[in-house]
Amino acid sequence: MFGGCSLLNSFFRVNSFPSIAVDSRRGHVFVAWGDYRLGSAKAFIVRSADRGESWNRARAVSNVSPNDQLFPWVATTPDGSPNVVYYDRRNEPDNFFLSVYLNTGRGGGLQFDPVVRVTTGPSNPDVQFGGTCIGDYIGMAATTGRLNPIWTDTRHVVSSFPAQAAVTSPVYLTTGGGASILASR
């Protein structure tokens, strides 16, 4: 194990650093992080409607699979809606390869539209560094009508140059909620 904790079937470190976003119009503060309270790694979010004085009960961003979710990152759009991007192993029977998913929020609260898969396929976390470090970086910028998640990706690795890449793909928010990806990477 390298660094803090790692997942049960992996060797790369899994940070538990929270990600924080603010809805400056309403004073809402959102915090996203990962933990094991449901038996596997899950992405959680919590909101404060009074600038951090008190917090609502934490909830899983997406709990559709017993597989791991990790490295959640939250960003708010100018209307104050929280959006969370994270790595997810929901489509992996062995709970190993990583894909990137996104939950888009609505109305400055914790109501989320159906999850959107951002990547076209999974990444192998064992590429480079002996599987101890997948880059563990993920983030997102948000603006009106558009999100730009960025993540570490190993899908286009060739044996002569086994390297990770930082990849981004614009996600366009649809009127009435939800998101669409015109060309995912």
Q: Any idea what the shape is?
A: globular
Mean pLDDT: 82
Report, as a whole number of angstroms, the end-to-end distance.
30 Å
Question: Share of helix among residues?
Answer: under 10%
Q: How big is the Rg?
A: 16 Å
Number of helices in the DSSP assignment: 0
H/E topology pattern: EEEEEEEEEEEEEEEE
Strand content: 35-45%
Topology, number of strands: 16
Q: Characterize the main sheet.
A: 5 strands, antiparallel
The computed structural class is mainly beta
Structure description:
- By secondary structure, this protein is mainly β.
- Helices cover 0% and strands 41% of the residues.
- It is built from no helices and 16 strands.
- The strands form four sheets. Strands 7, 8, 9, 10 and 11 form a five-stranded antiparallel beta sheet that branches. Strands 12, 13, 14, 15 and 16 form a five-stranded antiparallel beta sheet that branches.
- The radius of gyration is 16 Å and the shape is globular.
- The two termini are 30 Å apart.
- The model has no long low-confidence stretch (mean pLDDT 82).
